[in-house]
Design goal:
The chain is mainly alpha-helical and 213 residues long. 63% of the residues lie in helices and 8% in strands. The radius of gyration is 19 Å and the shape is globular.
Length: 213
């Protein structure tokens, strides 16, 4: 689900310090959920994202059977693999996140602000409460920003069809602007999905079978 993938990218950039998951961890031999090329997707990362997704879905569905039908484990795993594929592609393309870009992302996160201004004490306290360090948090955030950057670049290549352009020409005002945004968002998502699928075929991806058995 590409919408979930892109949503996860934005969410992690904003709230990358969410509480660590409490999913099943009884098999301690499983260290990685999956591996893309030589990049491992840690098991605790999988359960952290899974738990957050499960909590959101639980607000929409009261019947556990309905939630089970969604196959959240597979959905989350695929989204993490797609994010990893994008990160590797960004690195291979020579994209980077500068120190200033990283600092700005942290300082602009409202969870680390007091009265609209970044507060280092709040920042450090928030990370401590969530059992992570500035180094670990900033490493994850840097990856998220890198994925977001390449997603934007890929999305910008999307073009509207003649039919969509003709439809927009017949409209005026805010409706035209809103529809244009919907069209572009959809086209961007399609472009990103197509890009991911095209390079996935050239990558070695290993999924831990015990995780989704």
């Amino acid at each position: 689900d590409l919408v979930f993938v892109l949503g996860a990218i934005t969410l992690m950039i904003t709230v990358a310090f969410l509480f660590w998951g409490i999913g099943p961890k009884d098999n301690l031999k499983i260290v990685y959920a999956a591996t893309v090329e030589d990049v491992n997707i840690p098991l605790d990362e999988f359960w952290r994202v899974y738990d957050n997704k499960y909590k959101k879905v639980s607000d929409q569905y009261s019947d556990p059977e309905e939630i089970k039908k969604l196959n959240l484990e597979q959905m989350v795993l695929e989204s993490l693999i797609d994010r990893t594929v994008l990160m590797i592609a960004a690195q291979n393309a020579g994209l980077t996140i500068t120190k200033r870009e990283l600092q700005q992302a942290i300082m602009n996160t409202q969870y680390f602000q007091k009265d609209g201004v970044f507060n280092q004490s709040i920042y450090l306290r928030a990370l401590k409460l969530n059992r992570t360090t500035p180094q670990a948090y900033e490493s994850r955030l840097k990856s998220d920003l890198l994925i977001f950057k390449i997603s934007q670049l890929i999305g910008e290549t999307a073009e509207l069809s003649p039919y969509e352009l003709k439809m927009l020409e017949s409209m005026e005002g805010d409706n035209k602007k809103q529809l244009a945004e919907i069209f572009l968002s959809s086209k961007s998502s399609q472009s990103i999905k197509a890009y991911i699928e095209s390079i996935k075929r050239e990558m070695e991806i290993k999924i831990n079978p015990e995780l989704i058995s």
